[in-house]
Amino acid sequence: MTRALLLLRRRLVGSVFVLLIVVIGTFLLLEAAPGDAVDAYIASTGGDAGMIELLRHRWGLDQSALTRLATYLWALLHLDLGQSVTFSRPIRDVILERLPNTLLLMGSATALSFGLGSALGIYAGARPGGFRDRLLSIGSLALYAVPGFWLGLVLIIVFAVDLRWFPIGGIESIASGKTGLDRAADIARHLVLPVSALGFIYLALYLRMMRAGMAEVWRQDFVLAARAKGLSRRRIVLAHVARNALLPLVTMLGLQSAQMLGGSVVIESVFSVPGLGRLAQEAVAARDTPLLLGIILVSAVLVIVINLLVDIAYAFLDPRVGASEAGA
């Protein structure tokens, strides 16, 4: 427990600087882009020079970039993300409305890809070079090469339009009045296709990594010793080979969290899921810089938290890593 706390403290200190770099870097990039929220608003609704000047003053865009950055950082110290130009509401409230949908989509897709991918990787790596190993390797390579948006569109056409097994999009039925288990079942039914589209891509990655890790572990001396003792192949695979091949997958789970979050932007757009991905798309279209900064900041915090949990889990799975990290 002490080792995990020391590791957590070191990671938290580094995370503060990471978040600061993310905020400042994102702000400067958005400032370098042409146009602002006033330009996007006038382009969609129209207005004269007086309205433009009034909006720039109301939204603080008549101040210098350095002043606005300092004001934003000071507000962040008080956990204030500011006001959304698009929604005219506190950004914190807007993000908290959408965040659960993204977490549900990401969590379900991660469980699907990691769980099923690891299981299929163990199944393929149990007999390296066999028929099922080659079949699953080719299938996973083909699946990994498929773009997420294309897979999502195919799933919609086949299972939502033609077969009508699942809804085309959304997170739940509008004005259904369902509560409790009925609402949970309705949300689960809506999530089947987007979770499949997002999870299957990374499923192929975990399958290939597990299979490759098991192929390497099979050549280790302790595996040869276990075979010489006469242990059954099933016990060797589960107790020795798969267990040691699982460690790189835990590391990859943290590294893929950022890519999974980025992939959810596309999947949420394809399936009309009201999450952070669609919210970011709306913020970019409206040039709502404060809202986009808030989304990126929350996304960075989410990725950091996931990697912290992965580091702690890795420290427990491999005490040597935890000891070296804590003592560094």
Automatic annotation (TrEMBL):
Which controlled-vocabulary keywords does the entry list?
A: Cell membrane, Membrane, Transmembrane, Transmembrane helix, Transport
Q: Which InterPro entries match?
A: BPD_transp_1_N, MetI-like, MetI-like_sf
What range(s) does the ABC transmembrane type-1 domain occupy? 99-314
Keyword Methyltransferase annotated: no
Q: Please list the GO biological process terms of this entry.
A: transmembrane transport
Topological relation to the membrane, as annotated: Multi-pass membrane protein
Q: Where are the transmembrane segments?
A: 12-30, 103-123, 135-161, 187-207, 291-317
Q: Where in the cell is it found?
A: Cell membrane
Q: Which GO terms describe its cellular component?
A: plasma membrane
Predominant location category: membrane
A Pfam family cross-referenced in the UniProt record is BPD_transp_1
Assigned protein family: Belongs to the binding-protein-dependent transport system permease family.
Q: What name goes with this protein?
A: Peptide/nickel transport system permease protein
Question: Which species is the source of this protein?
Answer: Mesorhizobium muleiense
